[in-house]
Amino acid sequence: MGISTPEGPLILPVNYTLLDDAIAFRTAPNAPPAAAAGNRIAFEVDRMDDALSQGWSVLLVGVARAVTDIVQVSLLDKKVLSLPWAGGNRSLWITVVPTQITGRRIAARNTHFSSTSTGPELQ
């Protein structure tokens, strides 16, 4: 998750889940990701496989919103499949409905190396 701060851009890893058309993640109310609420943020998910020289990256942009509705908080608490990796109380849910989504797939042209190999193809 990336946000703009008075000190400059801030990129933070977060555990997330998908909820309908939104990304949702938990944070502590006083933690840096909580500052995302009400602001436009970037959210990126990547998967790379070094052995096969392939992968993908998806970037979405949207406005982050704090979830304050008790029914929605309960739904998120029940749906989440993992606990936040960072310890402590992470009681504030933030959701992001994307307004823009871009992505890239990276695939090697050849599955073997040779003197004529041109390297990975960016798509």
Verbal overview:
The protein has 123 residues and is mainly β. Helices cover 8% and strands 50% of the residues. Strands 3, 4, 5, 6, 7 and 8 form a six-stranded antiparallel beta sheet that branches. The protein has a two-stranded antiparallel sheet with strand order 1-2. The longest helix is centred in the middle third of the chain and has 10 residues.
Topology of helices and strands:
Elements: E1 2-5, E2 8-11, E3 16-19, E4 22-27, E5 40-49, E6 54-66, H1 70-79, E7 92-108, E8 120-122
Antiparallel strand pairs: 1-2, 3-4, 4-7, 5-6, 6-7, 7-8
Q: Stretches where pLDDT falls below 50 for ≥5 residues?
A: 113-123
Structural category is: mainly beta
Helical segment count: 1
Order of helices and strands: EEEEEEHEE
- How far from one another are the termini? 23 Å
The average pLDDT value, as a whole number, equals 83
Strand content: over 45%
Task: Identify the overall geometry.
Answer: globular
Keywords:
8% helix; mainly beta; 6-stranded antiparallel beta sheet; 8 strands; 1 helix
Give me a quick take on this structure.
The chain has 123 residues and is mainly beta. It has one helix at 70-79, and strands at 2-5, 8-11, 16-19, 22-27, 40-49, 54-66, 92-108, 120-122. Helices cover 8% and strands 50% of the residues.
